[in-house]
Amino acid sequence: MSLVSGLTQLKLSSMEIAGSLGRSRRDFLRDASGLVLGSSLGGSSAFLQGQTQQKKRKVVVVTFGGGARDQETFAPEGQVNISHMLHELAPRSTFFTQMMNKGILGHYVATASLATGVYETLNNFSAVPPGHPTVFEYFRKDLKRPLSNTWVIAPSNGFNRIGESEERGYGPGSGARVILPKHLLKAASSGSSADLKHLLLDSYETPLYTPHLGGGEIELQQLDAILKLSVADFMSHARSVSSPDELSMYIAKRLMREQSPSLLWITMHDIDIAHSGAYSLYVEAIQRTDRLCADLWRAIESDPEYAGNTTLFILPDFGRDADMEAGGNGFQHHRTGDTASRTTWMMALGAGIREGVIYDRPVQSIDLVPTLGAMMGFSAKLSQGQLIRELL
Ligand SMILES: [Zn+2]
């Protein structure tokens, strides 16, 4: 029985729907990429042992931003849009088919939840810090890492506080620095931004929302010091890219080369253009995000600071609605909070990760941070997630 006919014939519980989505993804992946189902948690993944290696360990997290449905990604009719992930990345990855987000489905609050390991309840459209310590704070405090060792590249000015909480013992000055490419672009192009409109739109949901900045974001004059990039070169590159995520990826690669952060977090967001209702732009954004993820993996593998000691995580912040009924919004939004919009996936590849394995068991968005802690050697004390033992 297919999911859709199941839905119309009987009221399935959300757990059953989530399970069915996960199993479909697993079958699609096995057909397309030849992955096998993981069954045992036995044995360690022969991971880096010892201090020296642990010191070199790097993690890059990419959110496959803004939510895409299976119809345009893992389902047979969508696979053409994610050919890089399916054929280049999935065969090298451990893949979780059911990553559940049980929190609020707004992009900033969901990303903050991913970064703290707690379902945050902050107002999605306000410039407030996450309510609990972030992975960046745990990482720096326990491993005694300098400010330059962890960075966030975020798509929207509304993410400017994502780098650190206000929690006692952590908080201001102890988290990650945040780069907001759109903010930099706006500052660099003031007065002559007409040709850059497609890169400057800050939010696809509330285009008029302009948060007041005041977090740890870097400013234009620091481009040169941090990225060895002149404003003129930055502008000329911006004019050559087609989307904000392309600009973010350019900054990410530059940052890897100049600062070699050990914990790098990149939030992509192009796919959220689906809110505009333009299906072709939504699909194009999925294809671009797929290409950028593979591109990033190649950059990791070709950089001596990263090759062989880096684990890459790719996961959506959440999904999109699946209400295909008349009056529903189809691919466009994530406002119903239905099971499809909460059931996503996660791919991990690189150092310490078993290749070509799929796990069906449900994991949660908040499980990422404690798992990163176990991998890198810090304790995410206040996170509420569980360890994903299949990755350890
Ligand atoms: Zn959205």
* Structure summary, number of beta strands: 10
Our count of domains comes out at 1
What's the CATH architecture name?
3-Layer(aba) Sandwich
State Rg: 20 Å
Instruction: Please describe the biggest sheet, giving its number of strands, its sense, and whether it closes into a barrel.
Output: 10 strands, mixed
Mean pLDDT comes to 88
- Uncertain runs are 1-9, 46-52
Bound molecules: zinc ion
Q: State the shape.
A: globular
Order of helices and strands: HHEHEHEHHEEHHHHHEHEHEEEH
Structure description:
The chain is globular. Strands 1, 2, 3, 4, 5, 6, 7, 8, 9 and 10 form a ten-stranded mixed beta sheet that branches. The protein has helices at residues 3-9, 14-33, 51-56, 83-89, 107-116, 135-143, 181-188, 197-200, 223-227, 231-240, 244-259, 279-302, 339-342, 368-376; strands at residues 36-37, 58-63, 93-100, 150-153, 177-179, 263-267, 310-315, 343-350, 357-359, 363-364. It has one domain (54-67, 101-335, 347-352, 363-391): 3-Layer(aba) Sandwich (Alkaline Phosphatase, subunit A). Helix content is 35%, strand content 12%. The protein is an alpha/beta fold and 392 residues long. The chain is built from 14 helices and ten strands. The two termini are 36 Å apart. The longest helix has 24 residues, at 279-302. The chain binds zinc ion. Zinc ion binds at residues 66, 107, 204-205, 272, 275, 334.
